[in-house]
Amino acid sequence: MGLDLPNDNLIRGPLPEAHLDRLVDAVNARVDRGELKVMLLTGASRGIGHATAKLFSEAGWRIISCARQPFDGERCPWEAGNDDHFQVDLGDHRMLPRAITEVKKRLAGAPLHALVNNAGVSPKTPTGDRMTSLTTSTDTWMRVFHLNLVAPILLAQGLFDELRAASGSIVNVTSIAGSRVHPFAGSAYATSKAALASLTRELAHDYAPHGIRVNAIAPGEIRTDMLSPDAEARVVASIPLRRVGTPDEVAKVIFFLCSDAASYVTGAEVPINGGQHL
Ligand SMILES: NC(=O)c1ccc[n+]([C@@H]2O[C@H](COP(=O)([O-])OP(=O)(O)OC[C@H]3O[C@@H](n4cnc5c(N)ncnc54)[C@H](OP(=O)(O)O)[C@@H]3O)[C@@H](O)[C@H]2O)c1
């Protein structure tokens, strides 16, 4: 991949070798028997990612997750959660090769059925307003693009063999802000999500001959930490369904796209926004 690895030691939660054999033998036997599907989910600790991990876990999937914070076993009661979680700042592209190594270690040659690129950042001004194309600093542009766009590219590239082995699928989490100027989301966020939608098409085209489907979901306003406290009241009147969405309503669409029910769906960007695109 040609990237340097100066900050390898900054990955926290690397899988201890002692755990590896025990975890891998038990899990891979179930994968071989077709009893278990495996996903990598970025940003599983809160919001849409948390609801997604919960739903897939209830459906019997193994969840490999990553975020900057450690695994919280009380909030996230899925099997092997602690061993299958590692801490990484995906906004630092130099960490990505090491993050991919952590995933491969946990897979130990087993296929990967789904990659869900969910972790994202939507910076606001200190007063909670949108950062415009006139006021966004270079550092902010880079930080947003690294997490929202570059990390999904590198994960998709780095895990290509494992996804191909499973005839797996990728779901990228874009946003309604990628297709219109949005009252809260800033310019860097909006353009990164537009680029991620475009990346979804490119990946869908390039990965289709290898049996890998690539889709996106574009949420509107969903009740998570990312939504500022007054946002709900401000937008509800403009949403045809007259309410914001919930994380589990997003998780269900991600689940559909990763399931055999969507076996002929690739290159799609599904709006989940209560009708705001109408
Ligand atoms: N909520 C909405 O209304 C809405 C609307 C449209 C699109 N979306 C998109 O949906 C996705 C999830 O949003 P959300 O509302 O669920 O967000 P959230 O509640 O803020 O959760 C974000 C998740 O990403 C992780 N994360 C953040 N920065 C990271 C980094 N640098 N490296 C690794 N992990 C990182 C966080 O964990 P740590 O803090 O531990 O790192 C957390 O698990 C995002 O891509 C967002 O753009 C959300």
TrEMBL record:
<dbReference type="InterPro" id="IPR020904">
    <property type="entry name" value="Sc_DH/Rdtase_CS"/>
</dbReference>
<dbReference type="Pfam" id="PF13561">
    <property type="entry name" value="adh_short_C2"/>
</dbReference>
<dbReference type="InterPro" id="IPR002347">
    <property type="entry name" value="SDR_fam"/>
</dbReference>
<comment type="similarity">
    <text>Belongs to the short-chain dehydrogenases/reductases (SDR) family.</text>
</comment>
<protein>
    <submittedName>
        <fullName>NAD(P)-dependent dehydrogenase (Short-subunit alcohol dehydrogenase family)</fullName>
    </submittedName>
</protein>
<dbReference type="GO" id="GO:0016616">
    <property type="term" value="F:oxidoreductase activity, acting on the CH-OH group of donors, NAD or NADP as acceptor"/>
</dbReference>
<dbReference type="InterPro" id="IPR036291">
    <property type="entry name" value="NAD(P)-bd_dom_sf"/>
</dbReference>
